[in-house]
What does this fold into?
Amino acid sequence: MKNKVISFVFLVLVAICGGPAFADGTQIASDTNLSLAVNAYGGATNGAFLRLVNNCSPGNSNCRWRWINGMIVSDTNPGLAINAYGGATNGAFLRLVNNCSPSNSNCTWHYNKGMLVSDTNPDLAVNAYGGAVNGAFLRLVNNCNSNTSDCTWRWGALTK
It folds into this structure.
């Protein structure tokens, strides 16, 4: 019974917040390969690209994220959030920026059927561009669906 209550609370929080329910920073892993995690490549700085890497550990804050008001913010520096750089268009790179707010839809997301979907354009979702491999850039694409594992993500799935 306790597990059912916890699952229900989680689903309610996802429905209300539009994203995963977690307070502490956690890793975002590719459904294609759970050993690949989203990383602020080169460190969490303004303008850093988001890439998949295979060397994230739970202690690496450049691989941990928080969901705050629809934004996905860096655990290293909560003043940095994931942004559809240059605007949410097909092929846009995801980068960390220091000028996000919940009112900027290029910085806010929804978690839908495992996909991270743009609030600017719900036809665009985050993709491991070129395939989920070590070093792949994260970009927005218009051909994702929940059956494409290069477009689906798990929160806190890594066990390294």
